[in-house]
Amino acid sequence: MRVSSGRFRTQPRSPSRAPPTRGARGRRGSLLDPRSAAGQVFLVQILIVVLLVVAGMVSVMLQAAHDAVQQGRRDSLVAAQSFASSPGMVEALRSRDPTAVLQPRAEEARKKTGVDFVVVTDTRGIRLTYPYPQEIGKKFVGTIQPALEGRTVIEQAGGPPVPAGEGTAVQAVVPVTDARGTVVGLVSAGITVENVGRLWVPQLPIILGTGAAGLALAATGTTLVSRRLLRHTHGLAPQELARLYEHHDAVLHAVREGVLITAGDGRLLLANDEAKRLLGLPADAPGRPVRELALSEQMTDLLMSPEAVTDEVYLAEDRLLAVNKRPTFPGGDRGGSVVTLRDTTELAAVSGRAEVARERLTLLYEAGARMGTTLDVRRTAQELAEVAAPRFADIVTVDLLDAVLRGREPTAEGWRHLRRAAISGHPQLMPMYPLGEVITFSPDTPQMKALQQGRGLLEADLRQAHGWQEQDPDRARRALELGLHSLVTMPLRARNVPLGVANFYRSTPSPAFEPEDLSFAEELAARAAVAIDNARRFAREHAMAVTLQRSLLPRGQPQQDALEVAWRYLPAEAGVGGDWFDVIPLPGGRVALAMGDVVGHGLHAAATMGRLRTAVHNFSTLDLPVDEVLANLDDFVVRMDNEERTEDDGEGHEGEGVTGATCLYAIYDPVTGNCTMARAGHPEPVLVRPDGTVTCPHVPASAPLGLGCYPFETADLHLSEGSQLVLYTDGLVEQRARDIDVGLDRLRRTLHEAGRRTPEEACQAVIEALGPAHPVDDIALLVARTRRFPPSRVAEWTVPSDPAMVPSVRAKCRETLRTWGLEEIGFTTELILSELATNAIRYGLPPVRVRMLYGRCLICEVSDGSSTSPRLRRATTTDEGGRGLFLVAQFAQRWGTRYTARGKVIWAEQTLSDGPSAGTAHAPVDALLEQFGDPAL
């Protein structure tokens, strides 16, 4: 039966199309290609032929050389024996001058016999003849002992040169005997090896010609064989051939489609296992005619027909087979075809499962893309619920441990109390626990069992889920009445730590959950758990870093008279950074302002910021100039960087350097109105004049901290009273969607619109105008409005460099304090000033000047032209001096020394509240003054 309805036929019958040409046929290659099998066979055969020909030629040449040597041995022996047995030989040897008789005869014999030398020696081996007379009388080179015993010796030996050349020669040594058989002398004849070679060299062209001819014949035969092999292998390499046949067998026998190959004469050439199964073919079907295979008439006609077939469905017993047929050799006359069979009865079920799997994979992909993007625990839980509902479940709820929501490490003690963190679907139709409510689950509920067992649980029919119903019977009864019927509870676990549970509900008319839904829910919950745990850990680290950073930043405004200060600090959402600022009171009523930024985020940046802020405090305590503070801070950052890199390298970790930290440091003097500042890679401050003009003071930009060996330039400004100095970090003006120049322009415009607002109001206006809703970097802002010391609160005069002028200092001090209404601390202040002035006059250099400042405290300063700093020491009872600075330290709240470009200033501060200075009586002061014993006092 042939089925041709449109339901099964995917496209109409089309004329046969030639299949694409095989890649192997497209690259036939050549015989010299070593990658192809034919090329490898050709090269191996050529190599074998060459080796055989060369071996034959070498063997022939060696045989010829051997024959030549044997011929030389025979010629040498014949010549030697002939000369030794010549008439008169014995008489010549016994004559008075054997050489005179034998030399001409030996040379004549040498020339006639063709040997290279004929030598006659006595029984001692002394030459009696030789082609060169100068060699006569010398020792014969060769073996003579066997010849002296009556035997003949044939050997190869070297000797003096002969007319034919020099070198090794083949020589024969025969004895010369008298009538009684006594050896009376020796005769040696020989031929040099060079002349022996000439005996076989004429044969060399014949040998080479024969070898070349054999090589040519063998190469021709090899070429013919290899070309035929090349046509059959299509230029494929041996590995490709082996892989081709392996893939052929693997594909044919493993593919889920039947494959049949028929010949032009109607024989079945090949049938794979699937084809045999679908058509019920016997094992011996390949090789038999198609008409003998007992197939249906429709299938037999299909296999025998030369027409091409595309996606037509045929009935084979109880199977519907989708058939495709193409000719084996399109466009040729060889015939044959390839038929593929596919069982469409199983296709519908497979397609359904594939569609479900595709939807699940798509949902998992979307879940991976949507969950965990905000690093917020509640938002991540809500993203899980929104991903799963309604595509996997009708209602999804997520319940998390309270510790997880607070960023803490969860413990088993809190399992029973979970807080609802997310709901998605149609909870308005169901009696669900609301968001934020704490749920106490009983031990028999699916949620508690899932947490305890660490695996998901399926309740296919909630009417049979007694543990779920006992949790809240009224709520469960109403949910069942509204159509809730199936539940999958999956624990949320990360790093083997439970975080909570995710509940997937289905209601009418959705089908109930099946066991295979557990694996999908598990995969979904696993991805969500990792995202939730990352958010929890981030929240914990962020809270720790913010706490650390806030603890390191100023907690309140220090007491000072120079500036009215307000600030703002906003940590980044993705992790706190290293932004910091400080307001540091300095001696003389001055105030230092510091603002910095450490590269990076997290605990490391916050800790580094704390170390830098402490270092700035320490350097400020030394009352160093602005550029020296930055230089010392730069050295400190370099040392920190080197220490951290060394420690991290020792542990095998990548070092976290602090190179790139920035800082702006300024010192404001309210007496003169001067402000000295310098910046190391930090944004330039903004100055708001009292008239509302907004400018940038053009502070020179220096390299960031941590680079080392770079100078820091300073800028000196004169600030009118009421000027506002605005310091900030780059997070305020630079954002991803906004260029820094745009941010600076908005900052200046905002400050201009703020007009004469207070620093607190100016801070708030700037943050509202420039502060992002979700900052990606820390933001630090400090606004300082300048104040000036009233001239009436400043007393300053010059003291002549004479100890006798110290009483005048006390008198001037007394008069000034009376003007300010501070008579109650007059004796203490006179004591401090007189001691400081005495030290400056005695040990310093002129000019000596005294200055008194009346603000929140009383400041006494004595300056001189020396850079020598006094030091505090304790005098013994017999010392006449040395108690001055000790007394100053006892009666002053603080005291110290600072250096200037023209010398130094020794200062002392007295608090004006109730304290040691205010409560000191006259009698102790007079007693202390009497201890000095100085007439000038």
Short description, anyone?
With 937 residues, the chain is an alpha+beta fold.
What does this structure look like?
This protein is α+β, with helices and mostly antiparallel strands and 937 residues long. Helix content is 39%, strand content 22%. Helix 11 packs antiparallel against helix 12, helix 12 (377-388) packs antiparallel against helix 17 (516-552) and helix 23 (806-820) runs antiparallel to helix 24 (826-843). The longest helix is centred in the first third of the chain and has 48 residues, at 37-84. The radius of gyration is 57 Å and the shape is flat. The chain starts with a strand and ends in a 7-residue tail after the last helix.
Features:
32 strands; PAS; 26 helices; alpha+beta; 6-stranded antiparallel sheet; disordered N terminus; 937 residues; transmembrane helix; flat; GAF-like_dom_sf; 22% strand; single chain
Per-chain topology:
Layout: E1 2-3, H1 23-26, H2 37-84, H3 89-94, H4 98-113, E2 117-121, H5 145-148, E3 153-158, E4 168-177, E5 183-192, H6 193-197, H7 204-233, H8 238-254, E6 258-262, E7 268-271, H9 273-279, H10 297-304, E8 309-316, E9 319-327, E10 337-343, H11 347-370, H12 377-388, E11 395-401, H13 402-405, E12 417-425, E13 438-440, H14 446-453, E14 457-459, H15 466-471, H16 473-481, E15 484-494, E16 497-507, H17 516-552, E17 563-570, E18 580-585, E19 591-597, H18 603-621, H19 626-650, E20 662-668, E21 674-680, E22 686-688, E23 694-695, E24 701-702, E25 715-718, E26 724-728, H20 730-733, H21 740-754, H22 759-770, E27 779-786, E28 794-799, H23 806-820, H24 826-843, E29 848-854, E30 857-864, H25 884-891, E31 894-900, E32 903-911, H26 922-930
Parallel strand pairs: 21-24
Antiparallel strand pairs: 1-8, 2-5, 3-4, 4-5, 6-7, 6-10, 8-9, 9-10, 11-12, 11-16, 12-13, 14-15, 15-16, 17-27, 18-19, 19-20, 20-21, 21-25, 22-23, 22-26, 26-27, 28-29, 29-30, 30-32, 31-32
Helix pairs in contact: 2-7, 11-12, 11-17, 12-17, 17-18, 18-19, 21-22, 23-24, 24-25
